[in-house]
């Protein structure tokens, strides 16, 4: 996996400004009363039929796996601009194993949903079905196979990450740690390649010695994999170091399966440079990471598009596929780079929600319109996710229904659907709880008290003020945010916060 240097996803990656239910790669859950073949439960939906031809890795130009970048909008844009194959960001095996498959009728996607908090672990669609490769982080053959069986009918291929040098991966025995345990690496690849219907590949880094690199790659190639990606830096080298193109060439000359060259983004400024990198490494296929992260139109044979055009296209896809706002912001930041210091870039940096980001490129009305269309069509997103739905969905997919830990109704409690968006409150004095505390003191009434309940990774808080209870029907991703949401409901109910203001800033949709 590559991405700002072959990095592994850190804790909390892909979160939004609201609850985890905003979904790490989007933000929706298929409605229970939705239209289409999935109405009776995702487990009853037949997978998309695989094409008769297996994915061929020869002579291809490929979007590399990049943490937080390789989500659906970026993959689709890469394909539009001319990429032949697109890799997902690395997804850790256990995260996929605790997810269930759902057909999203509103977006026209297949979503793999984390049953503990409703986040979208992986989202794909028919437009990329024959071109998308899912990269897995794993250190166990059996877990890898279980994941493979879950996703094999929705992707064109599966890749095992053996190149990530980050501490997160190495400590878990994943990434480059697998290259230090060749027998385990071979077992993972052989078990997966012989157990799933789609082709399996792996992506590695070179070793300090070229001969050792070739021997390891030859051993991995004998496991039945369809291709191998080779990043031309060692586990200790970073982008400032030169890419060892001659190591990659040596591997390509020694192997009979396709070798995919990676690590040349410092040398790639235009499409012609991709072809030069292909020639320099002696490989028929090239995988592009940073150069595509900066401007994904690098795949256009006709030449790069202006960055503003690329960003607008990317944001349009982010809206159309309900992509997570923080994920979209991360991707645009990596496109802008030094342009973040311009007046426009600074306005962008202040934006938090997807609508606010879109406004910087005159797409706010489009974003708002599409979000309202999705809501009318029954899309379950950030404001609708709750443990009750997740319990039902898990049961539909064969997971035993968990014991109910909370009161299912809010009878007698003043309830509003208000999201707490942290970025709207720059100082502690601006926080809803602080404002409420100041108000009760001026009214000389009792101090507010909060009772918070947790289910899975979701939280909801009930606030009592002067004998009256308040709560937000939104489930938040931590206790503090749940309490702030309840305080907002109280302030709004008491007339201390205007509901029109909350609608304008995105707290109420």
UniProtKB/TrEMBL annotation:
Compositional bias segments (type: Gly residues): 7-18
Signal peptide: none
CDD domains hit by this protein: DSRM_DUS2L, DUS_like_FMN
Record Gene3D superfamilies: 3.30.160.20, Aldolase class I (3.20.20.70)
Domain DRBM: 432-495
Region annotation Disordered: where it falls in the sequence: 1-51
Pfam family, one: Dus
GO cellular component terms, semicolon-separated: cytoplasm
GO BP terms: regulation of gene expression
GO molecular function, one term: tRNA binding
Protein name: tRNA-dihydrouridine(20) synthase [NAD(P)+]-like
Native source species: Thrips palmi
Underlying gene: LOC117651639
């Amino acid at each position: 996996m590559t991405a700002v240097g072959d990095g592994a996803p850190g804790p909390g990656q892909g979160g939004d400004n609201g609850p985890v239910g905003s979904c790490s790669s989007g933000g929706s859950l298929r409605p229970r009363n939705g239209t289409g073949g999935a109405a009776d439960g995702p487990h009853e939906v037949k997978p998309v039929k695989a094409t008769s031809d297996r994915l061929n890795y020869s002579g291809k130009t490929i979007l590399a796996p990049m943490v937080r970048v390789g989500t659906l909008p970026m993959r689709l844009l890469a394909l539009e601009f001319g990429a032949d194959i697109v890799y997902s960001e690395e997804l850790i095996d256990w995260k996929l194993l605790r997810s269930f498959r759902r057909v999203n009728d509103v977006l026209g996607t297949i979503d793999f949903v984390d049953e503990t908090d409703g986040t979208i672990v992986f989202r794909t669609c028919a437009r990329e079905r024959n071109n998308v490769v899912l990269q897995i982080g794993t250190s166990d053959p059996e877990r890898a196979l279980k994941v493979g069986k879950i996703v094999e009918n929705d992707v064109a291929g599966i890749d095992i990450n053996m190149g990530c040098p980050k501490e997160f991966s190495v400590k878990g025995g994943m990434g480059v740690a697998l290259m230090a345990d060749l027998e385990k690496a071979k077992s993972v690849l052989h078990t997966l390649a012989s157990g799933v219907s789609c082709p399996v590949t792996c992506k590695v880094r070179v070793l300090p010695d070229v001969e050792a690199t070739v021997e390891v790659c030859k051993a991995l190639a004998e496991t039945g994999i369809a291709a191998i990606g080779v990043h031309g830096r060692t586990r200790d080298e970073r982008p400032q170091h030169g890419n060892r193109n001659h190591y990659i060439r040596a591997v390509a000359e020694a192997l009979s399966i396709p070798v995919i060259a990676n690590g040349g983004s410092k040398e790639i400024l235009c499409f012609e440079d991709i072809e030069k990198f292909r020639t320099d490494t002696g490989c028929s296929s090239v995988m592009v990471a940073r150069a595509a992260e900066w401007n994904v139109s690098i795949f256009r044979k006709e030449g790069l598009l202006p960055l503003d055009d690329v960003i607008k296209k990317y944001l349009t896809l982010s809206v159309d596929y309900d992509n997570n706002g923080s994920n979209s912001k991360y991707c645009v930041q990596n496109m802008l780079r030094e342009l973040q210091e311009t007046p426009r870039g600074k306005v962008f940096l202040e934006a938090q929600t997807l609508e606010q980001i879109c406004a910087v490129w005159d797409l706010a009305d489009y974003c708002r319109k599409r979000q309202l269309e999705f809501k009318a069509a029954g899309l379950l997103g950030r404001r609708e996710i709750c443990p009750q739905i997740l319990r039902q969905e898990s049961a539909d997919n064969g997971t035993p229904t968990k014991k109910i830990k909370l009161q299912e109704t809010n009878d007698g409690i003043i309830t509003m659907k208000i999201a707490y968006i942290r970025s709207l409150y720059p100082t502690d004095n601006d926080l809803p709880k602080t404002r409420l505390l100041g108000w009760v003191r001026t009214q000389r009434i009792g101090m507010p008290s909060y009772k918070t309940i947790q289910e899975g990774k979701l939280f909801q808080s009930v606030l009592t003020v002067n004998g009256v209870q308040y709560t937000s029907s939104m489930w938040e991703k931590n206790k503090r945010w749940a309490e702030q949401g309840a305080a907002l409901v109280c302030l709004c109910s008491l007339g201390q916060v205007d509901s029109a203001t909350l609608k304008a800033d995105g707290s109420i949709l």
